[in-house]
Amino acid sequence: MKNFVKVEGKEFFETATGKKYVPVGVNWFARGSGWAPKIWKLFDEKWFERDFSRIKALGMNTIRVFLGINGLMGEEMCVNEKELEKCIKLLDYAKEYGLRVIYSGPNAWEGIPLWMKELVQNGGYFENERFLKSLEHFYHVAGEAFGEHEGFFGYDLFNEPMIRFSPDYDGLSIEKFHEKRQKISYDFTKLCVDAIRKHDKAHLISVGSHQWTVPFCGQHPSHYFCFDPHAIGELVDYVSLHWYPYLDKDIVEGDRETFEYNAAFLHGAMQYMDVGKPVVLEEFGLYGGGPAHLGTRQYAPLSQKTQADWVIDVAMKRGSKFCDGWLNWGFDDYEDQGDPTRYQGFYDDDMNEKEITKRFPKGLADTFELLNKRGKVEKNMTLDVDVYKVTSDGKTMMELRDTVIEAVQSGKIIDFNVKM
């Protein structure tokens, strides 16, 4: 009997052994593959040998890897077999080292094929017939190719999909546009899920949701991305959240107030994503060991200790009340990038262990113990959220954010009563 991972309630289990499975690991891209990373174009199996053993040695079991649409689907409605073989080769290595892989995508990190460049962007992909047919075809092929592989965890259908607010969208009113984009996100997800399930009924499916999928995480109507689990949750096996403390109040070294503000913000977002299925913090982290920037925004240096405190204590141990899996953004510090990725890894530029690495095994053991003791989380506050009203007005979004953060900081566990 092959050993995959399944969902029961809000937990993961191995199908053959019945053992509980907690997906813990990293978003993996190879040090030295450039930025954006070009792991498929440069494809070097020595990277797997160098990194996968170190990942496993920390007690991790899962990695998330971006697929490249330019290589896999350089031609419309055609999946490149040689590129697909690379994907299977990576799964083979993962299995050998005792890891499972979440494939995200296909994404545009290694370029966009010519046939896609003429298509509408900024959310228009998700209702463009040519794009939808090609992606549906890809997931038919992927479902057949990956369906029996024990090194495969599952599909992250699309990384941080967005259908942004647009007051002039096809001449629709704001309310009608809201209804339309919720339907687009549902129909897109269903299309991909149905294609996969015709061939692969064993592996899990999710969508890699940006934090602006949570209606109170932004500050303007354009900051709500749709693909809300309260709209598409019935289609996926588990819910994925990407969340970083970089888009509101910055964490300042030695300032406990900004640290705890962001902790409450993250835990509130985790609680919103609860639709009765496991929640995986699929991208998260904090830089430690230097400064960073994001676009024109500059971030002051943070210590390795602050990084470890955030990842282990806030996201994992304290977050274990609301979350069921964790994948840090990056494994090594990354010299090729200046954004927070630069210092968000477990090993510095000289491959020395950082503080997070030294503390991680105990932190992971503590997290597992907390999960085993968790039981049913009793919610003690109900909060009504009308997503249309909230996301149509930036002031209302921020008022809801403040309400959530204040509630979490006072010890409330929120039952979100969501109206889409």
Describe the structure.
This protein is an alpha/beta fold and 420 residues long. The longest helix is centred in the middle third of the chain and has 24 residues, at 174-197. It has helices spanning 39-42, 45-57, 69-72, 81-96, 114-117, 129-146, 174-197, 229-232, 256-272, 304-317, 355-374, 387-391, 394-409, and strands spanning 5-8, 11-14, 20-21, 24-27, 62-68, 100-107, 152-159, 204-209, 239-242, 279-284, 290-294, 297-302, 325-329, 381-386, 414-419. 38% of the residues lie in helices and 19% in strands. The mean pLDDT is 93. The protein is built from 13 helices and 15 strands.
Summarize the topology.
Layout: E1 5-8, E2 11-14, E3 20-21, E4 24-27, H1 39-42, H2 45-57, E5 62-68, H3 69-72, H4 81-96, E6 100-107, H5 114-117, H6 129-146, E7 152-159, H7 174-197, E8 204-209, H8 229-232, E9 239-242, H9 256-272, E10 279-284, E11 290-294, E12 297-302, H10 304-317, E13 325-329, H11 355-374, E14 381-386, H12 387-391, H13 394-409, E15 414-419
Percent of residues in beta strands: 15-25%
Residue runs with pLDDT of under 50 for 5 or more positions: none
Largest sheet features: 8 strands, parallel, barrel
Which class best fits the helix and strand makeup? alpha/beta
Query: What are the secondary-structure elements, in order, as H or E?
Result: EEEEHHEHHEHHEHEHEHEEEHEHEHHE
Helix count from the secondary structure assignment: 13
Given the C-alpha coordinates, what overall shape results? globular
Distance between the termini: 41 Å
Helix content: 25-40%
Number of strands: 15
Mean pLDDT: 93
In what order do the strands lie side by side in the largest sheet? 4-5-6-7-8-9-10-13
Cα-based radius of gyration, to the nearest Å: 20 Å
By oligomeric state, this entry counts as single chain
